[in-house]
């Protein structure tokens, strides 16, 4: 009489697949990124295995799982670049003093004023544009 061993659970199989294929997925992603960003490759590897974990009940973990993992890795890189392409970063307040590129000193009332060491240090057109922008936004204007 032989003793029957229980079939491994899906989570045990996933753990074995992760241990066996993690480096392959990471190198696939790193290759698609051109080897430039290992931290991003780690993040996308994690996303790839998270997606595999979410689909673990619907996927057959057979001998062809490496091809599926490579496909999922390439898709995760494609999704990353797709999101990156559709994201545009703009400064929130271009009239803010940090964008003025000049030295500032505290002024009365908690505002800031430009420190002008000598004549010709300030661009009058830019100063006027900044004053109008601050006035329109209800910010204090130092004269």
Write the layout of secondary structure elements.
Layout: H1 10-32, H2 38-54, H3 65-85, E1 104-106, E2 112-114, H4 124-136
Antiparallel strand pairs: 1-2
Helix pairs in contact: 1-2, 1-3, 2-3
What report would you give on this structure?
There is one protein chain. The chain is mainly alpha-helical and 143 residues long. It has two domains: 76 residues, Orthogonal Bundle (Rna Polymerase Sigma Factor, Chain: A), CATH 1.10.1740; 40 residues, no CATH class. 52% of the residues lie in helices and 4% in strands. The chain contains four helices and two strands, in the order αααββα. The protein has a two-stranded antiparallel sheet. Strand 1 and strand 2 form a beta hairpin. Helix 1 crosses helix 3. The longest helix is centred in the first third of the chain and has 23 residues. The radius of gyration is 29 Å and the shape is elongated. The N and C termini lie far apart (97 Å). The model has no long low-confidence stretch (mean pLDDT 78).
Q: How many structural domains?
A: 2
Strand content: under 5%
CATH architecture of the largest domain, by name, is Orthogonal Bundle
Q: In which range does the helix fraction lie?
A: 40-55%
Count of helical regions: 4
Q: What's the count of strands?
A: 2
Mean pLDDT: 78
CA radius of gyration is 29 Å
Low-confidence stretches: none
């Amino acid at each position: 009489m032989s003793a029957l061993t229980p079939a491994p659970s899906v989570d045990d199989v996933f753990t074995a697949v992760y241990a066996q294929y993690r480096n392959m997925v990471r190198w696939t992603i790193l290759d698609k990124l051109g080897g430039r960003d290992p931290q991003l490759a780690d993040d996308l590897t994690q996303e790839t295995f998270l997606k595999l974990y979410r689909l673990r009940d619907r996927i057959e973990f057979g001998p062809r799982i490496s091809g599926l993992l490579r496909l999922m890795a390439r898709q995760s890189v494609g999704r990353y670049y797709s999101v990156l392409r559709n994201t545009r970063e703009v400064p929130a307040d271009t009239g803010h003093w940090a964008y003025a590129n000049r030295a500032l000193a505290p002024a009365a009332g908690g505002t800031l004023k430009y420190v002008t060491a000598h004549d010709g240090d300030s661009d009058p057109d830019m100063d006027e544009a900044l004053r109008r922008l601050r006035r329109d936004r209800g910010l204090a204007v130092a004269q």
